[in-house]
Amino acid sequence: MEFERNILCIGAGYVGGPTMAVIALKCPEYRIEVVDINEERIQQWNSDNIPIYEPGLDEIVKQVRNKNLFFSTDIQKGIKKADIIFVSVNTPTKTFGEGAGMASDLQHWEKTAHTIIEYANSDKIIVEKSTLPVRTAEAMERILKASNKGIKFEVVSNPEFLAEGSAVRDLLEPDRVLIGAHQTPEGRKAEKELADIYAHWIPRGKIIITNLWSSELSKLVANAFLAQRISSINAVSALCEKTDADISEIAYAVGSDSRIGPKFLNASIGFGGSCFKKDILNLVYITKSYGLNEAAEYWEMVVKMNEHQKQRFVQRIVKEMFNTVADKKIALFGFAFKANTGDTRESAAIFITKQLLEERAVVAITDPKALDNARMDLKGIDRNVIYEPDPYKAAEGAYAVALVTEWEEFKTLDYERIYKSMKKPAFVFDGRNILDHKKLYEIGFNVYPIGKTQLTHFE
Ligand code: NAD
Ligand code: UGA
């Protein structure tokens, strides 16, 4: 079959894979190829066991794979064929040199630019899908223009706002699609081509067009705002625990103001995930690099507050369990950074487990999707870790259950059965406030929610 356009996506990760699967589904007249240097990942995308768990994704991939969606490691061929190249490689926090621990590590991004000029033999639109520091497109253009092949490259920014666990829904029904392009005839043309792809299923009114730099920066700012809400509610949760105010009631009362809104006000053990921390630190770094120190410090507090919240959770476990957890089994309910994903990148569970191991506890981890990743995260330090798919077994003989991921299945467990199998006094630390605390208390547990009055049987 002849396809109208050839689209290439470099990077077959949490963004590249789902995004291209949805574009393939909605644009059958386009041929879409997703390439990656990671052979194993590509093999998985081509198998019945796709490399990431996202509700609904498996079905879409099965529908379009090898029809108009292809996964391959042949980057060279992919570049030659493509009219439009999305780049969705990883942009983690730099771990070395200037800006280590703060700035974005753009090495994968830059390598991609060099690969593109090496193999391109016709004009291309380059789409920044990865999250990047503001003005990255300028660097990309400099690299691409250094080629003397007479090929034109137009760089546009099109950041991705999907959240893991709801990626398919977010891609099918996004709040908005953002496209940033140079306000030149060539820039406008590229912007229109990209908008036309999304217009296959997204109302034009939801496609926002900005200049390139606003688009790049909006992505960092959107993540900073979202994370800031979590740090704000978490900061208040600590105060609630001291005053018998209830964080859920406060979130409801405050979020009912239409100017504030109800979403992203769930107090927790702290946000995790591959992006919030890295994107805020990157924003802090960029802001500082322009000498805007107060603004930088403002955003940095969002991350500091988050680190504090994770620490606070562990400190509370140790303190309430009579200041020692040494040799005590603690069942960790959940390891993923949020529900409906197997992803554990920057999951608060990693920090919590490490701290509990430092305190010489035995940690029994149970999670419906993230046990393989947990094993990798704790490799070399997991002598006192038990990986247990069955939550009932994880809790057997434990002194405490610490719930860290808000999986639905944890809500419906038989907690009477769990209580009976545990050591007494039995503790529940609900790091997500998803359990029925009163019921747990009535069963006999000592219950410690986040930002709510604790329910204990102690005098
Ligand atoms: P990821 O690590 O899952 O995937 C990136 C992929 O790029 C990897 O498979 C890696 O092998 C590949 N890659 C790296 N260098 C390459 C090269 N030179 N050639 C070919 N492939 C190469 O990362 P991700 O979670 O998909 O994130 C990608 C970008 O999207 C990041 O900038 C991230 O900030 C942003 N983002 C992520 C999410 C999310 O939910 N994960 C959401 C929005 C935006
Ligand atoms: C986040 C953003 O929501 C996406 O819009 C963005 O595209 C993405 O980052 C990215 O750039 O990578 P994600 O990290 O996948 O998505 O998941 P979120 O739903 O935002 O959750 C992040 C963390 O915050 C999780 O650990 C979650 O449990 C926590 N959280 C979320 C809370 O503690 N409280 C809340 O009220 C909401």
Helix content: 40-55%
Domain count: 2
- Strand-residue fraction? 5-15%
Second CATH tier, the architecture of the largest domain: 3-Layer(aba) Sandwich
How far apart lie the N and C ends?
Answer: 76 Å
Instruction: Give the count of helical stretches.
Output: 18
Estimated structural class: alpha/beta
Unreliable sequence segments = none
What characterizes the major β-sheet? 6 strands, parallel
Q: CATH fold name of the largest domain, please?
A: Rossmann fold
The mean pLDDT is 97
Cα-atom radius of gyration: 24 Å
What's the CATH H-level superfamily name of the largest domain? NAD(P)-binding Rossmann-like Domain
Tell me which ligands are bound: nicotinamide-adenine-dinucleotide, uridine-5'-diphosphate-glucuronic acid
Number of strands: 14
Using the alpha-carbon principal axes, give the shape.
elongated
- Strand order, main sheet: write it out: 3-2-1-4-5-6
Can you put this structure into words, describing what you see?
The chain is of the alpha/beta class. The chain has two domains: 5-210, 3-Layer(aba) Sandwich (Rossmann fold); 307-448, Rossmann fold, CATH 3.40.50. Helices cover 44% and strands 14% of the residues. It is built from 18 helices and 14 strands. The strands form three sheets. Strands 3-2-1-4-5-6 form a six-stranded parallel beta sheet, sandwiched between helices. Strand 13, helix 18 and strand 14 form a beta-alpha-beta unit. Helix 1 crosses helix 3 and helix 12 packs across helix 13 (348-358). The chain is elongated, with a radius of gyration of 24 Å. The termini are far apart. The mean pLDDT is 97. The structure holds nicotinamide-adenine-dinucleotide and uridine-5'-diphosphate-glucuronic acid.
